[in-house]
Write a structure and sequence with these properties.
CATH topology of the largest domain: Rossmann fold
Largest sheet: 5 strands, parallel
CATH architecture of the largest domain: 3-Layer(aba) Sandwich
CATH class of the largest domain: Alpha Beta
Shape: elongated
Radius of gyration: 33 Å
Strand content: 5-15%
Structural class: alpha/beta
Number of domains: 4
Strand order of the largest sheet: 2-3-4-1-5
Number of strands: 8
Helix content: 40-55%
Oligomer: single chain
Number of helices: 25
Amino acid sequence: MVPYVVFALKWRPQNFDDIVGQGHIVGNLRDAIHKNRIPHAYLFAGPRGVGKTSTARILAKALNCKDGPTTNPCGKCSSCLEVTQGRSLDVIEIDGASNRGIDEIRTLRENVKFSPVNGKFKIYIIDEVHMLTTEAFNALLKTLEEPPEFVKFIFATTQPNKVIPTILSRCQRFDFRRIPVIEMIKQLEKIAKKENINVDEDVLFSIAKSSDGSLRDAESVLDQLNSFSKDKISLEDVISLLGLVEQDVLFAMAEAIIQKDTNKALVLLNNIIDTGKDIGVFLNKFIEHFRNLMVAKITQADPELVDMPGEICQKLLRQSQAFSLEEIFSAFNILVNTQEMSKRLDSLRIPLEISLIKLTHDKRELNSPRQPPQNPAPQVREPHSAEQQIPPKESEEVAQASLEEVKNSWQDIIAVLGKIKMSVATYMNEASPIKLVNNVLTLSLPKNCSLHKESLERKENKAVIEKTLSETLNAQIRIDFVLSQEISEQQNTQDNSFIRSALEAFKGRVIKEG
C-alpha cells in the first residue's frame, strides 16, 4: 500500500518554474547562475509557507545537478534525487531552532573543511537561522567570512531583524513576499484538477483568504477538506472548518451601515455568534473589508492592488461609492478602537455592538436641531428731517455662551453638522466639550483619535464647525482641539494671573474650569 503524502509535501515545488508568487527572486537566482556569480551566502527572509526552504533546495539542486550549475536541474540524476529525498551528503539541512547552540556550530565549522562527496558544492541550509544564539552566530562568523570555495550557505528566516548585523552584511538577501490571493487560487485550482477534487472557485477563494499569504497553509486546508468531504467541497465546509465569515456577510454589514439600519447590523452580528463563528475573526475581516473598500475606491478596483478576484473587486467598487474616503477612515478607526476596548473589557461582543450602533446610527434622525433665535429685522422709518433721524446705537457687548449651553445643545450641533458634512459629524461625535472661555471652546478627543483631530483642524472643516456653533449658540464661537493626554499638561502650565488679566481685558467671566 502506497503511503499517503499530504498536499503540502506532494505539491512542493521541484524546480524554479514551480515556485509560486516569487518571480522577482527566481529571476535574480537564474541570472546569478547564468553569469556564474553565485555568492557564498544567501539569506531568504519572509513569512512562513511562502517557499523559502523549497527555493533553497531547488537552488541546491541547480548547483549540484550533473548538468549544473544550471537554471533547470534535471531532477533525475543521483544528486537531484538525493536532495529531493532529503538524503544528500552534500546538502545538509539544519534546524536553527533545535541546533542553536555554540557546540552545534563548532561541529559545523569542523565539517566545512571536508570536500563534497558527489556534487560540486557542499551546501548548508539553516532554517530559522534567527534562533541561533549570539555565541553561535559569532562562532559561525569566521567561517562565513572565509569559507572554502566549494561551500555555500543558505539561511532561511521569518524574522530577519533577529539576525545579527555582522551575519546580515555577509549575505545576499532576498525578501519573499506573501502569496497574492489570485496566484494562490490558481495553484489550488491546479491541485484540485490533478487530484480530481470537486470544488468551486468561491471555496478556493475562502481558503486562500484565510491562509494569510501562506501557500503551505492553503494546501493543508484543501487537503483536510478533501479528506472529510464526500462528493464536493462546499463553502459551508470551509466556514465550518475555519470559523470564517462569508464575504456576503461583510458586504451585508457594510450595507447596513450605508442604510443606517442598526437593527439589521445587530441581527447580522447575532447570527454570526449563533452559528459558532469567531467574532474576533469577523472583526478582523470587517476591518480588512473597509481597507478593500478604500483601495477599490482609490484605484477603481484594480484587482492586483485590492488582491481579490475581478467579480468581488467590482462589487467592492460599487459599495465604496456610497462612502466618502473620510467616512471609510472613520469606520476603520472605530473598528480598530473596538479591538482596543475589548482588551480592557475582556469581552468583544459588547464593544462590537457599541461600534456597530455608532456606525449605523443616523445622526440626522435625531430631534430637529434647536434653531437659533431669529432677530426680527428692525423697521427703519424714512427720516423727514435731520432731527427725526434715528441716532446710532452704542456698541453692544459681545454675546457670551456658556459651557452648559454647549453641552445641552451638543446633539443638536452634531445633527446640523451631519446635514452639512457627515464625516465632520462622525469625528465630532468622538469629541467632548470641556472648557469655554471668552467664546473659545476647547474640545477633547480620545488620545487614540489623532487622525480625527487632524481632520477637524483642517481650515475648511474648522470653519464649518465654528459657523454651526456660532449660529446655534447665537455667539461668535472659536474652537480649539486637544487630545485627552494634553489636557492635564495644559492645566498644569496655565498662568492663572494671565488668565485673570485676559478675562478683565475682554470683560469675560469663567463659567466652569476644566
